Amino acid sequence: MKTLEILQSVQYVTVKGKRFAVLDIEDWEALIEWLENLEDRLVVQQAYEELQAAQGDREKAGWLRWEDVKENLT
Fold first, then answer.
1. What are 1-24's pLDDT values in tens digits?
2. Full-prediction pTM beyond 0.85?
3. Collapsing DSSP states into helix, strand and coil, what is residue 41?
4. Residue ranges per structural domain of the chain
5. Which among 13, 37, 36 has a CA at the least distance from the CA of 23?
6. Cα dihedral sign for 48, 51, 56, 59?
């Protein structure tokens, strides 16, 4: 199901005067995955733009060398 279809499939329920949106759990998980992917793409786009602004120089763009950080990841 596409994201727009998921959003359009929302059902509403009113409990004690409060209105809630209800989604099927599979639709909710798909929506969360879509948002995470969107966030990842924005991070990549920003990094690419910073690299372009630094004329391809990773150090000027603020990128770290793998050799300098790999031991901190384990």
1. 677 888 888 999 999 999 999 999
2. no
3. helix
4. 3-73
5. 13
6. negative
